[in-house]
Specification:
The protein is an alpha/beta fold. It folds into two domains: 180 residues, 3-Layer(aba) Sandwich (Rossmann fold), CATH 3.40.50; 182 residues, RecF/RecN/SMC, N-terminal domain (Glutathione S-transferase Yfyf (Class Pi), Chain A, domain 2), CATH 1.20.1050. The protein contains ten helices and 15 strands. It has a six-stranded antiparallel beta sheet, covered by helices on one side. The protein has a six-stranded mixed beta sheet with strand order 8-12-13-3-14-15, sandwiched between helices. A three-stranded antiparallel beta sheet has the order 9-10-11. Helix 3 packs across helix 5 and helix 4 crosses helix 7. The two termini are 29 Å apart.
Length: 374
């Protein structure tokens, strides 16, 4: 799969921008703050239904505008499809597929991306929420219908927490909260499915992760990836659901006292291991970069092996400047066979020569096709 054309209207710093990227590597060159990342952010938004830089959709709308439009033509195996998203400052966002009204959450059925940005170092070093989002974004790209499951879980969790807080304020006895039982059933059903998909993902990701780390770091280290759940149970849906139910029942008084749900997929984490130690806290700066890059490359290769859409669109946002020459070259070799890779760079010389296939220069919200050394 590849982007054959991209059109932006009132997105970030672009009043209007149109680009026909081409196959293979697409390099966006420009000084910081000119709008390079905004271009790849727009593409990634359609696949993940969010930004890798902000959780607020309105931040993607150009200042002074009421709406932003992202329009992408995709091509794969002789077929084309047009996706259009309208992000509204007021009111719900809108979507179209081939000019017909659609739901935005259906877009992952048509487009798949894997993005690596400097912020992804926090996958290794940061808080569990980022690692949970990484898993959930990936399980949705593997199985797009799970977008609804994840959204429903978040909605049920919010409703349940509201009820717990109300019980705390009104001093309602835990035994008189029959309404909570209904939310518990939904939370357990949705949470069991999400956890099962996360386990399957990490199992399938382990092999590609080890291969990617060796390819990028240039050495064979023992890497591992393990789900750390807040619910201890055998790895089957029935056992997990029963354990989930028991913990909710036995912990109800404490949950009312605190006004939050204390167990479930929203409390889980992932442990990335490197040579038998947790990468978080033990990996060096270079090892952390290699690990995070390997994680994204492994995700891209996993999606490639499963998807009827072909290769995911690979995005490397401001990556090469942080790598030494050896890692730059190894990364270039690792991504060379992807159908389309978008690369942003402040300095063209940071990008290995074999990736300088299609070069665009970005300056103050304008995009111009250029030569390698322009």
């Amino acid at each position: 799969m590849h982007v054959s054309s991209l059109s932006l209207r009132d997105f970030r710093n672009y009043a209007a921008a149109d680009i026909e990227p081409g196959l293979g590597s697409v390099v966006l060159v420009g000084s910081n703050g000119q709008g390079k990342t905004n271009i790849v952010e727009a593409i990634n938004f359609l696949a993940t239904l969010g930004s890798h830089r902000t959780s607020i959709d309105s931040a993607l709308i150009r200042q002074g505008s009421d709406a932003a439009i992202v329009r992408v033509n995709l091509a794969h195996d002789g077929r084309t499809i047009l996706l259009e998203a309208q992000l509204n400052r007021n009111g719900a966002n809108k979507a179209q597929v081939n000019h017909s009204a659609a739901k935005l959450r259906d877009f992952p059925r048509y487009i798949s991306t894997v993005i690596f940005a400097p912020e992804d170092l926090m996958l290794i070093r940061g808080e569990p929420a980022g690692r949970r989002k990484f898993m959930d974004d990936l399980i949705i790209q593997r199985t797009p219908r799970l977008a609804g499951v994840v959204a429903d879980y978040d909605r049920v969790l919010k409703q349940r927490n509201t009820l717990l807080k109300t019980a705390r304020v009104k001093d309602i006895d835990a035994g008189n909260l029959s309404t909570l039982d209904i939310w518990d059933e939904r939370l357990i059903a949705l949470g069991t499915e999400i956890t099962g998909e996360r386990r399957r993902l990490l199992t399938d990701l382990a092999g590609p992760l080890a291969q990617a780390y060796e390819a990028i770091a240039g050495s064979d280290h023992a890497v591992s990836i393990e789900l750390k759940t807040s619910i201890e149970a055998e790895h089957n849906p029935q056992a997990y659901a029963e354990a989930f139910k028991n913990l909710l029942e036995t912990g109800r008084v404490q949950e009312i006292e605190r006004g939050i749900t204390l167990v479930g997929p929203h409390r889980d984490d992932v442990e990335f291991g490197l040579n038998t130690l947790p990468a978080k806290g033990y990996a060096s700066h270079g090892e952390t970069w290699s690990y995070a890059l390997s994680l994204k490359l492994a995700a891209a290769r996993l999606l490639r092996s499963e998807s009827v859409l072909g290769d995911p669109i690979l995005i490397l946002d401001d990556v090469f400047a942080e790598l030494d020459s050896a890692r730059r070259q190894r990364l270039a070799e690792a991504v060379a066979d992807f159908e389309q890779t978008f690369i942003t760079a402040a300095v063209a010389e940071d990008v290995p020569a074999q990736l300088m296939k299609h070069v665009f220069h970005v300056k103050k919200g304008t995009i111009e096709f250029g030569t390698n050394n322009a």
